[in-house]
Amino acid sequence: MGWSTREVANLAGTTVNTVRHYHRVGLLDVPDRASNGYKQYQVRHLVRLLQIRRLRDLGVPLERIEHVGGDSDPSSQALAAIDADLALSIERLQRARAEISAIMQGSSATDVPSGFEDVAARLSAPERALMLIYSQLYDEDAMADVRKMLETHRDEVTAAFDALAPDADETQRRQLAEKYAPKVARSLAEYPWLSDPTEHLSQSPEIAQKALFQSIVALYNPAQIDVIARASVIAQELLPEMAEGRHE
After folding, report:
1. How much is the pTM?
2. Is the dihedral of CA 58, 64, 65, 71 positive or negative?
3. DSSP letters along 137-175, please?
4. Cβ–Cβ < 8 Å for 176, 164
5. Which of 212, 217, 206, 229 is nearest to 133 (CA)?
6. pLDDT (tens digit, 0 to 9) for every residue of the chain, 248 residues total?
7. Which of 30, 62, 142, 244 minimizes the number of CB atoms within 10 Å of its CB?
8. Is the dihedral of CA 87, 92, 97, 102 positive or negative?
9. DSSP one-letter string for 182-226
10. CA 3, CA 107: separation in Å to the nearest integer?
């Protein structure tokens, strides 16, 4: 006599659907059927279900269970890999808990990428949004450079740019662009990858360029976008002098 699917599921502390799923993915052998057509689970099936449950309770992913259970002894190599994954998960959870605690205490921010909390107060709302978008486009090295740039970011020129009205006249735009251009040129000289970020992109250049363009258009008003364009042109003219000055 054996057990029915429901009976063996109850004994193993799981569900009928879970038992059937284990059959489908090859973790549990399908038992023979009795003369009435019903499956007849044996002790070995119950033991296997309990093994699977034990490994799942330890956090072993379902797709790896076949390498550490069954009729053979667990694989030390497979278990070591799983243990390493669990250690990383614990580390991520600990970082997340620490950051959540900081947010609850008011010393962190949720609208900037991790690691940018210290500079968040210096950023405008569009800049915070851009940092989140940047974190999806650039690798860790690039984001570290961006953070360094932001540490000395806030000044009168930046404040004037943030306050620029959408209907600012030609003179205001030109003058602000001329003041803003040296900041852009210094950044380009100090971080050459800004001119060609291909090696630091986590997305394709096409996707990154489209995302950046759409983000700028959505986050800044027409006058600010015009200043950005003008300052970029002037910065390219200033760049050789800036670069030469850095090597003297």
Report:
1. 0.58
2. negative
3. HB-HHHHHHHHHHHHT--SHHHHHHHH--TT--HHHHHH
4. yes
5. 212
6. 789 999 999 999 999 999 999 999 999 999 988 888 889 999 999 999 999 998 888 778 888 887 665 444 556 677 787 888 888 888 888 877 876 776 666 555 567 887 887 888 888 999 999 999 999 999 999 999 999 988 876 789 999 999 999 999 999 999 999 999 999 999 999 999 999 999 999 999 999 999 999 999 999 999 999 999 999 999 999 988 776 655 45
7. 244
8. positive
9. HHHHHHHHH-GGGT-GGGGBSS-HHHHHHHHHHHHHHHS-HHHHH
10. 58
Nearest CA to 172 out of 187, 157, 184 is that of 157
| Token pair 């050789």: residue | 240
DSSP type of residue 31:
P
Residue with tokens 């119950």: 46
Question: CA of 206: how far to CAs of 137, 203, 224, in Å?
Answer: 11, 8, 24
Which whole-number Å values give the CA distances from 89 to 59, 93, 100, in the listed order?
10, 6, 16
How far, in whole angstroms, is CA 149 from its chain's centroid? 21
